[in-house]
TrEMBL record:
This is Geranylgeranyl diphosphate reductase, chloroplastic. Pathway: Porphyrin-containing compound metabolism; chlorophyll biosynthesis; Cofactor biosynthesis; tocopherol biosynthesis. Keywords: Chlorophyll biosynthesis, NADP, Oxidoreductase, Photosynthesis. Its EC number is 1.3.1.83. InterPro entries: BchP_ChlP_pln/prok, FAD/NAD-bd_sf, Geranylgeranyl_Rdtase_pln/cyn, Geranylgeranyl_reductase. GO terms for molecular function: geranylgeranyl diphosphate reductase activity; geranylgeranyl reductase activity. It is an enzyme of class 1 (oxidoreductase). The keyword Transcription does not apply. Belongs to the geranylgeranyl reductase family. ChlP subfamily. Catalyzes the reduction of geranylgeranyl diphosphate to phytyl diphosphate, providing phytol for both tocopherol and chlorophyll synthesis.
């Protein structure tokens, strides 16, 4: 995992991964269909369809009615809507969640992520066989980072921002330019853009309906990681429903809040707040980004980061080392700020 500063200073961030630990890169089109098939083989009934709306129950004893258009319907005579009655709804339908809208979960602010899938010549691909890059700088994103991530037989080149959504194509061009020598000869095979939630929705459980993943707003600031949290929240919510059902024979809002929401917040709310603070401090200016890259060369920073990242839990630090790190962070920030001002002064001469 290589982090590149605005001045292209590189820090190899994963030198101190523990033996056998690794940072996973994956292709969602492969993972998603694997998960779907596995659920089916475990007894889930798949119903390929587009959910169009949800009728809320008139009492705790009545079912939710899901209105949907089955996949493949609509050719010729117009879409044929079907209805399914269910006891409990788990909305895992992403950032534009229809379920969230129907249950009145409220809005959240979003960033936008833009990504191009690029097929590289064999030599270019070989360079990314075991390398993922993150670029920081005002040129590629005013508040996040740009990336080149390997995806087995191609790379994903992208950037994200909440602050400058209309400028996303300019930021993407800058990201491509930063990595240009390594992307030489590459052919864009797919372009993707999607909102990324910045914080949880005001309501994540309403009645017997719960939201998970992006629909709930579980994307970590700083890293933009949402796949793990989507899978984890889906499992936590599903486990909670089974537990409640076995115990009481029916599910109520208070049970879902206690067994799913409270457990989720206990486990992850602190981590999300910490990453939010880190993003504000280190992605706010080029000087802070230079300091971030310098700090990421430090062995203790790497160990703490990866111990926390791999186990999704803030690793417990050593007080003396933490104090040293605080001192080093302040020093790096100050040095990068002074250097940045000096560069600006020289430029203006
Ligand atoms: C460009 C980009 C790069 C990213 N890179 C990373 C990364 O490197 N690492 C990481 O951890 N995260 C990354 N993320 C974030 C991550 O993709 C999301 O957090 C994660 O996919 C959330 O999973 P989800 O299942 O909640 O939602 P989604 O993955 O959005 O899945 C929602 C599903 O619901 C379906 N759906 C939606 N509406 C309906 C409807 N009305 N009826 C029926 N089905 C519906 C959709 O078709 C989709 O299959 C990235 C996001 C983007 C946009």
């Amino acid at each position: 995992m290589r982090l590149l500063s605005p001045s292209n200073l590189a820090s190899d961030f994963s030198r101190h991964l523990r033996p056998a630990a690794h940072i996973a890169m994956l292709r969602r089109e492969v993972l998603d269909s694997f998960l779907r098939s596995r659920a089916q083989s475990q007894g889930a009934h798949l119903l390929p369809a587009l959910l169009t709306s949800l009728s809320l129950p008139s009492s705790p004893l009545h079912p939710y009615l899901l209105h949907y258009i089955p996949s493949g319907a609509g050719a010729g005579a117009g879409p044929a809507t079907s209805t399914l009655a269910v006891d409990v709804v788990v909305g895992a339908d992403g950032a534009n969640s229809r379920v969230a809208r129907c249950i009145g979960a409220g809005d959240y602010s979003t960033a936008i992520a833009f990504q191009e899938r690029v097929r590289l010549p064999p030599a270019g691909m070989a360079a990314y066989a075991d390398l993922a890059e993150m670029y920081v700088g005002d040129d590629v994103s005013p508040d996040f980072y740009a990336w080149v991530f390997p995806k087995c037989d191609h790379v994903a080149v992208g950037t994200g921002t909440a602050a400058a959504k209309p400028a996303i194509r300019r930021l993407q061009a800058a990201a491509r330019a930063r990595a240009a020598p390594k992307l030489a000869g590459g052919v864009v095979v797919r372009v993707e853009a999607h909102p990324i939630p910045e914080h949880p929705r005001p309501r994540r459980v309403a009645g017997r309906a719960a939201l998970v993943g992006d629909a709930a707003g579980y994307v970590a600031r700083c890293s933009g990681e949402g796949i793990y949290f989507a899978a984890k929240s889906g499992r936590m919510c599903g486990d909670a429903i089974v537990r409640i059902w076995k115990e009481k024979g029916r599910v109520a809002e208070a049970d879902l809040k206690r067994e799913y929401l409270r457990r989720w917040d206990e486990e992850f709310a602190g981590t999300f707040r910490f990453l939010d603070a880190l993003q504000r401090v280190f992605y706010g200016s080029n000087a802070a980004r230079e300091a971030l890259v310098e700090l990421c060369g430090d062995e203790y920073v790497q160990r703490m980061t990866f111990d926390s990242y791999l186990h999704k839990k803030m690793a417990a630090g050593r007080p003396l080392d933490d104090l040293g790190l605080l001192w080093k962070s302040a020093g790096s920030l100050l040095r990068a700020t002074i250097l940045g001002r000096e560069v600006e002064r020289l430029r203006s001469l």
